[in-house]
User: What shape does this take?
Amino acid sequence: MSAQSELLQKIDAHIEQNLAYWIGQLARLCAQPSVSAQNQGIEACAELVATMLREQGYTANILPSAGYPVVVGEGRGTAADKTLLFYLHYDVQPPDPLELWESDPYILTEQDGVLYARGVSDDKGHIICRLAALAAVKDTLGELPCGIKFIIEGEEEIGSPNMPAFVEKHQDLLAADACIWEFGGVDYDGRPRQALGMRGICYVELSVQSLNRDAHSGLGGSIFPNAAWRLTWALSTLKDRHERILIPGFYENVLPPSPRDLELLARLPEETAQLKEAYGLGEFLLHLEGGLALQRTAVFEPTCTICGLTAGYQGIGAKTVLPAKASAKVDFRLVPNQTPDEIVAKLRAHLDAQGLHDVNVTLLGGGRPAKVDPDDPFVKIANETAVAVYGCDPIVEPIIGGSGPNYPFIHTLGLPLVSAGVGYPGSNVHAPNENMTIKNFLQGTKHTARIIERFGRG
Amino acid sequence: MSAQSELLQKIDAHIEQNLAYWIGQLARLCAQPSVSAQNQGIEACAELVATMLREQGYTANILPSAGYPVVVGEGRGTAADKTLLFYLHYDVQPPDPLELWESDPYILTEQDGVLYARGVSDDKGHIICRLAALAAVKDTLGELPCGIKFIIEGEEEIGSPNMPAFVEKHQDLLAADACIWEFGGVDYDGRPRQALGMRGICYVELSVQSLNRDAHSGLGGSIFPNAAWRLTWALSTLKDRHERILIPGFYENVLPPSPRDLELLARLPEETAQLKEAYGLGEFLLHLEGGLALQRTAVFEPTCTICGLTAGYQGIGAKTVLPAKASAKVDFRLVPNQTPDEIVAKLRAHLDAQGLHDVNVTLLGGGRPAKVDPDDPFVKIANETAVAVYGCDPIVEPIIGGSGPNYPFIHTLGLPLVSAGVGYPGSNVHAPNENMTIKNFLQGTKHTARIIERFGRG
Assistant: This one.
């Protein structure tokens, strides 16, 4: 056995031997609510994360942003001229609907090798994964092989509205050579996934107030403006039943996928059966059945998703009310080179042109789409180390359907980003019963450790 | 002073002297929740109403219907061949949104001559008004001048789905010569209103389930069916922005108002300024400014009102979820000769024709529109007695915008119906801070008493 193989075996063994300790740390972190959408537990969670970094020997500061605080940490390593940055987030999605959880979302619960809690995968599981991997590498080598930086924000689940400005402002503090992103993991068959880009997001609330109070529907039905109707009509002008977004100019900055993107997409495994089963899906939209057409639509098409609707009476039975207020949450996923500012402006202009001046638009979160070069040397490191851990080549996705603030890291800091982590398709992220398997935790941590070790060797 | 005048003065004095007693009885009745939409307190309220009738010397039975129980009461009078029927309801609208109430909706609260509670006007105030009027007439004359019957149901606020069948089944029990309806009262200027007809109602829930659980909007936005979009598209096919209902055949049974209807409408006072102020309204729909055009549209046009919308995330901030379920409450107000069954069938056929087979339609309540002949002798009695109480001619409305189960009373039992009561435009019925003024209670009770006395004299 080579010295290198032996070293990696020791790192793996360290991760396995310390599993109980890290699960305990994960339970501690998940017990602290940190719902950014509802400003619940945010400050306390930032404090806890800083404390946990310091306990592992890193410096940690809680820096203000225009929104929630950002934890920035640092550790020195052997190679003074090489720095690896970890982007993570300490906030989580709201746990509701609570009645669908089978255990308390804030008490880490294990069943049959699976850990359940809000944030156990997205993203507290990844924070612990990084700390566990770094501890294994440091303890095994005696010292970290390179400089380490952390940026752990509290607004990822609400669209990271302040990350671009924060990164812009703290470019020197965050300067690095490469970045490991906040997520990663495996597909339905246990193959590692490498995500090289993300769609952008423009999350808005549309709201209408047509009266100063609700009216009796018998009184006003024929003659009073109804907020729920105004909202319905506004929404119906945004997208047709063929999924075509109708906002003028919406598609004008859309860049089609490159030949290299399409080549990578064509190699992706078919997951249609698993998706259909997981979501009880009869058929995909647009009669898509699978193959490159489905893969391409899933990630290279921008979207307009109604995430929520609220108006009037929502209890059981009938209430004959004409609602004074109505609102909708609408999430646009953007592809290169669309921008959230552009979309909000076009949406506003569209509603005005439709005579829907009374429909207010509030931007709740936005981020630009961005992609990493699939042939970057750091991407190669991440892919090669995955083979050793997972026993097969990773699936390389040129862009994924989800969003995150990768744009300022790729474009402002100029870093290659890779994904590595503990996720799997059954994690129920953003949904009740969010979970992570212990197997995936161990694999994701070993993969992260190997990227650190390999990057440190240069 | 004539004997007749003296008699009426004694009746009025009786009503005034017993005010505190009747307010106490109203407090007792309002303290009992009876929310039909939520099946809350229904049985207990039926029992209480029966007890209160018996305390006043009437027989009272609680009869089953296919839904909630119906209280049927009876009392004998001098004229054995003349019977007056009172239709009332003991159920109330849900009190929510609770946070907008300035007092507990189930504790009768007085402030500056105004009584506040859920149901204080609609319809518990009218139950007490009838009992107070009857007691005054009986005590003054020594005996009731005619037979009295009560039918007090518990499903009016959910569209009285079982009233037609109940009336059909109990025609003998309910046989009478005339009927005083469950409401009545004054307009903004204190003039009494006489409502001679009501629009029908067809209240449905539209619901869609597109997945077995919510999905991440980044994952499914481009390829998964979204229940909120399906619902939005379905709704947008029901009515256009010119308020035209688009369901094929929707208008085919609509009967235009008669010349007599238009004559009565033309005499109605202009209430546009009051309505605009009460609801913070900029302008009426369809650029209507007032006059006969507005009056006619308000009551002789059928409607399609969205009463409620529910889907996905409705909290503060952003949640990137693709909703598996969405639903809407939709209330169609019908004019002669539309029927709820016809509308449900046409709605279903329309959605199917639009390819919206996945949008489920559930009928939550329905009732046919109906009108009384404005020249019926009993209508004349009600109008003439109003002059004495209110000091002016009543406003006669050939049909009003609201709905109620008058069809079986007018068409199955063959009765003329009149309105008389305690309402006024500021009552906030179906809304927070429902209220009744003591002045209106006294007037409505005096008017009711005079109708009884006059009807009994023949």
Q: What stands out?
A: Chain B touches chain A through 89 residues (CB under 8 Å). Residues 438-457 of chain B form the longest helix (20 residues). Chain B has a mean pLDDT of 96.
